[in-house]
Specification:
2 domains, Rossmann fold, globular, 10 helices, binds nicotinamide-adenine-dinucleotide, three-stranded parallel β-sheet, six-stranded parallel β-sheet, 43% helix
């Protein structure tokens, strides 16, 4: 079984991006800039943002974090986003989710200029991705896609089963694999026989949020299994895939942690650079 090393893949990607930023700096005399807005003091969000800032600095991006307390008014956040939209030194804007209840997530997402939407959540980017046009692609599915391609560069005709239909993961993952000519089945909480669906798959991407949902006897030999889940349990952080069981069957599998997670952040940096490049003449 191939253990897909997301940490190593992310380090390699960051190295490539670092070279790219050096080239962009030489060409344009400026570097791409990423601005993250962090609202409130949720510990996981603070950790994510700190890691994003550290990685952005590592590859040579200009990075900035704007922090607001939980009580910040929605209009203050929207005004700041509009200001960042017109700031030429800012290539990408990310508002760390989740947001406090009084702030409308959709309004926030739609206020970010689509060309600076490094998360790929703006409806314009969602539409472009599903139409097969150039767009920012949500970072986690983009990371999964790059890991799958490392194991199997030619995905033509492969059968992919996506477990979970979230806007964040399942749906964009479907679009990316469709573009690669996979036959894609998207499954969810109302799917009648999830095991039978998974047993058909050459590729399984599990993004559910249920610890170790995907079992060893759900996976046929030669299947590539990507585990997006991050679940806190008594035995520590586990994914949506039963690692011990599935590793006996699968052709390749991502561990949790150390699989998809590190690629998510590296893909955020990649998206920031892509946003910068699209705006240079
Ligand atoms: P979500 O809650 O938005 O969506 C979960 C999806 O799973 C839903 O579409 C639901 O229909 C489906 N589902 C629920 N129960 C099911 C069942 N029994 N069988 C089949 N499908 C079922 O979740 P999300 O935001 O996509 O996140 C999923 C997981 O991925 C979480 O554990 C989250 O922490 C993790 N995550 C990881 C990263 C990363 O960087 N590795 C990034 C984002 C999310």
């Amino acid at each position: 079984m191939i253990l897909i090393d997301g940490k190593k893949a992310a380090a390699e990607l960051r190295q490539e991006l670092k070279h790219e930023v050096t080239g962009l700096k030489a060409k344009y005399n400026k570097v791409p800039g990423l601005t993250v807005i962090l609202i409130g003091d949720l510990t996981p969000s603070q950790i994510y943002v700190r890691n994003k800032e550290k990685s952005a600095n590592e590859v040579g991006l200009k990075s900035e974090v704007i922090k607001y307390p939980d009580s910040v008014e929605e209009k203050t956040v929207l005004e700041k986003i509009k200001e960042l939209n017109t700031d030429e030194t800012v290539s990408g804007i990310l508002v760390q989710l989740p947001l406090p209840k009084h702030i409308n997530k959709q309004k926030v997402i739609e206020t970010i200029l689509p060309s600076k939407d490094v998360d790929g959540f703006h409806p314009m980017n969602v539409g472009n991705l599903s139409s097969g046009y150039e767009s920012s692609v949500p970072c986690t599915p983009l990371g999964c896609y790059l890991l799958i391609k490392k194991v199997e560069p030619n995905l033509n005709g492969k059968k992919a089963v996506i477990v979970g239909r979230s806007n964040l993961n399942g749906k964009p993952m479907t679009q990316l694999l469709l573009k690669e000519n996979c036959t894609v089945t998207i499954t969810h909480s109302k799917t009648k026989d999830l095991k039978a669906e998974c047993l058909e798959a050459d590729i399984i991407v599990a993004a559910v949020g249920i610890p170790e949902l995907v079992k060893g006897d759900w996976v046929k030999k030669d299947t590539i299994v990507i585990d997006v889940g991050i679940n806190k349990t008594d035995k520590g952080i586990v994914g949506d895939v039963d690692f011990d069981e599935v590793s006996k069957n699968a052709k390749a599998l991502t561990p949790v942690p150390g699989g998809v997670g590190p690629m998510t952040i590296a893909c955020l940096l990649k998206n920031t650079i892509e946003c910068f490049k699209r705006t240079q003449i």
